[in-house]
Amino acid sequence: MSERTTGEVVLAARNVAKSYGQVHALKGVNFDIHRGQVTTLFGENGAGKSTLMKILSGVIQPTTGQIVLDGQPVAFANANDARDRGISIIHQELSLAPNMSVRDNIFMGREIKGATGVDYAEEERQVRVLMEELEEEIDPLTPVEDLRLGQQQIVEIARALSVDSRILIMDEPTSALSASEVEVLFKVIRDLTARGVSIVYISHHLEEALTITDHAVVLRDGNMTAYAPRSEIDLDWIVRNMVGDNYDLGSPPETTVGNVALSIRNLSVPDMTGKDLVDGLNLDLRAGEIVCIYGLMGAGRTELLETVAGRLSASAGEIVLEGREISHLTIGDRIARGLALVPEDRQRDGLVQTMSVGQNLSLASIGRFTRGLFTSRRDERQLIDDSIRQVTVKTAGGHAPIGSLSGGNQQKVVIGKILATQPRVIMLDEPSRGIDIGAKAEVFRLLAEGARQGLAVIYSTSEVSECLSIAHRIIVMHKGRISAEFDSSVSKEKIMAASGESVAA
Amino acid sequence: MSATTATAPAKGRQMSIGRLLLEGRAFFALIAIIAVFSFLSPNYFTVGNFLIMSSQVAIFGILSVGMLLVILNGGIDLSVGSILALAGVCAGAMMQGVEIEALGVILYPPVWAVVVLTLCVGAAVGAVNGILVAFFKVPPFVATLGVMYVARGVALLMTNGLTYNNLRGSEALGNTGFSWLGFYRLGGVPISVIVLAVIAIAAGLMLQRSAFGRWLYASGGNERAAELSGVPVKRVKITVYVVSGMLAAVAGLVLASQLTSAGPTAGTTYELTAIAAVVIGGAALTGGRGNVRGTMLGAFVIGFLSAGLVIIGVSSYWQTVFTGAVIVLAVLMNSLQYGGGARKG
Ligand SMILES: Nc1ncnc2c1ncn2[C@@H]1O[C@H](COP(=O)(O)OP(=O)(O)OP(=O)(O)O)[C@@H](O)[C@H]1O
Ligand SMILES: [Mg+2]
């Protein structure tokens, strides 16, 4: 172990700083990557993790400072340049072409040439090998847009693996993966490090990251604030250094449970082929109640929530909001009546990339600041400022482009947008993707506070611990049906068993 | 959780010269065009000439406001040139009298009725575009291309390919005043320019200050996200095509009035000029970005450029070459402006 922790440094950042106008994303950071080991980077949303990784992989150039590869100072012209020298990166936000197949995405820009153009057969073979290694059943020819989010993330990982690089940077590679998929990924990482590949790993799932890491580095506000080898750290250490405080996600809030706010009766939702993704599901949700829906990816949770929100249409069943059937209402009408959804995929369903932070936050509640024909700028600014404060978005201000925010802060904008509609029933589909524990605690606090005032919450997640610390009632979905229902005193193992997941994971 | 940071104070002050030039490019281009042609020809920089040029720009300007709305939505409307012709022909036909055979009478509707009915024709054709795109999911390029042919064909059928020449009406029939739109001046300013100004201001207000404007930007930027935020994306889509069709009809009326004639081949390729104006004005063809101010500047850049080339006696072939070069340059700058800004994760 002692030998491992002192493995030679292959790639290093020396005093690297990066500024975007007035925003100093990095303020002179030193960072080492050790051969054949996993270095984990921890830090709050907006701490500068992704920025540092993009500099090390040539995607962006530092304002000042140096990159040292194998002891020699280098400057990467672009990401391809870095890739040619053996450095590849899995981006936090997916960078796949949705209309193209898995195979074409994986080999995009590096097609294997055969005698007569691209050797598709060989590419396909390699993709199959990769998928086998990752234990996924993904056909190389499926268009990426037909895959669920987690599978898209797998494709992204497979693409990075296919390069055969010696330094692999993974920026939140597991945010949409299930526990068993993470387990497989970790096995792959261990294989890679055994072969001498160096890994940088970023995740807001702290426990998970701890199981794989050899070195931990903490970034805070663009500075490196702590470093330690694995043997010297624990969860407390990370949290203390990350946010300077200890966060307890707590236990479900004490609330008074009121009348049934949302009632889902016999709901069925078919996919394109007519197979039921949600299969005759019944669920009653009361005011002041927080219900967690746990399930593996593909259990039908997203489809259920999107149908209730009004984006998908049901083939059978009723959705009753506060005593009124709402199946025929548009999404906008449902939001006006107090039913809103925080979607799972923030890039595709959550954000309008061409609009500012403020316009995104106010998008779902334009009615609240429209007076007659026109919107009131003052009221809108008020609403935006309140939202930014409420969900603690780290941004230069409401006018900043949404793309200038760190991944986790973009996620907070999506949550803030829905909270701004003042919902009475809120549904959140994997809302903690990419947000740090401080922000997660904040979201939980907001939900708990809402629940005390009668807000009904459906919280969908694939993390058992989240269920246990927020929900009054835990519902496990499996193949479009409710396979079990528990109260908050249940054990993790029981929940996972009911979802059809192997408990070992 | 640490407090939200507001590190950057004023956003504007830090804007570099390059950025300013880039963002105001259409404006600077317009200044440059005016300066160059004023230098080359003494006839260019006169109030009279500006008013004439502006009344020509008005036609394209009105079309490009509609085009801007469609492009903001992420679509494109190739049918506006044809709608313009169809509208002109419809107005012409009504001015010549509508024969109702069953009663054996010829009806001469008053000019206001002609205008209203013509606008309805434009709106109806626009609605066809909108429904094709929103409900039948026909790609906008294809849907409006089809409608472009159909509308042109109908205009040709209605007139047998001929042109209505006398649109002045007569006192006796009580339908005079059609040429008012094209010839009358209010305080020296041609009515067509005033119409353009009113439309531009209304559109600008709508985009910047109304809920509909916000819906339009949102659904053009990311339709799925807009929909999930409660934006009635289909209604927005249909509305922009209807408005675009209606504005094309307005342009058709203005043109017919300026020429006091209406032909079925009027406005051929005007849709392309309108698209060019929108693009020069900095709008992104992918939707969600652009504004009325830019589009107006774009329309004036094209209009003043080609008028200037005519005045200094450059052949119309060269005009085409110049306009093309300006468009390409504009798109290049668009990719400069928008390409660097976005980032991943
Ligand atoms: N293109 C940009 N323009 C302006 N500011 C930017 C830009 N890119 C990053 N920033 C700012 O730099 C800071 C660091 O961002 P970064 O994406 O590195 O955070 P992060 O540590 O990866 O956070 P997260 O955990 O949320 O992904 C943030 O405050 C962000 O707003
Ligand atoms: Mg990040």
UniProtKB/TrEMBL annotation, chain A:
GO molecular function ontology, one term from the record: ATP binding
Pfam family, one: ABC_tran
PROSITE patterns for the chain: ABC_TRANSPORTER_1, ABC_TRANSPORTER_2
Domain ABC transporter: 11-246, 262-504
SMART domains registered for this protein in UniProt: AAA
Domain of life: Bacteria
Protein name: Sugar ABC transporter ATP-binding protein
Organism: Paracoccus rhizosphaerae
Organism taxonomic ancestry: Bacteria, Pseudomonadati, Pseudomonadota, Alphaproteobacteria, Rhodobacterales
TrEMBL record, chain B:
Stored InterPro entries: ABC_transp_permease
Entry keyword set: Cell inner membrane, Cell membrane, Membrane, Transmembrane, Transmembrane helix, Transport
Compartments reported by the entry: Cell membrane
Transmembrane segments: 20-41, 47-71, 78-98, 110-135, 142-163, 183-207, 238-256, 268-285, 297-315, 321-339
Membrane-topology annotation of the record: Multi-pass membrane protein
Keyword Cell membrane set for record: yes
Pfam families linked to this entry: BPD_transp_2 (PF02653)
Name assigned to this protein: ABC transporter permease
Lineage: Bacteria, Pseudomonadati, Pseudomonadota, Alphaproteobacteria, Rhodobacterales
